[in-house]
Predict the structure of MBL fold metallo-hydrolase.
Amino acid sequence: MLIAGFPAGSFQTNCYVVAPAAGEECVIVDPGQNAVGDLDDVLREHRLKPVAVLVTHGHIDHMWSVAPVCGARDVPAWIHPEDRDLLSDPGKGLSLATRQQLFGGLAFSEPDDVRELADGEVLRLAGMELTVDHTPGHTRGSVTFRLPSTEEIPDVLFSGDLLFAGSIGRTDLPGGDYPTILRSLATKCLPLPEDTVVLPGHGPQTTIGHERATNPYLAEAAPYAGPTRGI
């Protein structure tokens, strides 16, 4: 398994490239602001051919380069329907002050091919199987992507802005809701194996076991799982 990542743009949003191995097809997760140059370098270095762009949610720092990447590579973008409108109008997911600051003269549009994600769906792309979990709370259409373990690596969770090392995503922007994100954490993160590697939308990687033991938000989320949370 090959997973390469880099922080893109002024938001330092982690963009990931995922493939079975070098020289294979790959998927791209969350190409954010000014991601195209670094992304091209990663694809060239590992001789990878993109087949899809996956978007954890519609905030501008995660989707800024989706349309140009999809257009240049002629690949589809996958996003949850609750966040699809943010591809062409990302200002809907921001505060008024932030919209006024960011969008002077900027225009966004959907890629030609947009496909909608569903909770529990298994995407079979580039010779891999990625499980989609709908995890609202940061936005209405936030999702995570899970890769099953192999002989080389444990389970991997691309958590977007649901879960960070030591923290969680903000809930004060349009579409955010604090009890909802706690419920998503409880039902989609807490049941995962402790050695699951978490690759978040910002900051360093972590594991579910470390976050379960140290992250105060996961402790707060535990009651939302109910008696069958499986931990």
Remarks:
- The radius of gyration is 17 Å.
- The helical segments are 36-46, 60-63, 66-73, 96-102, 178-189, 208-214, 216-221.
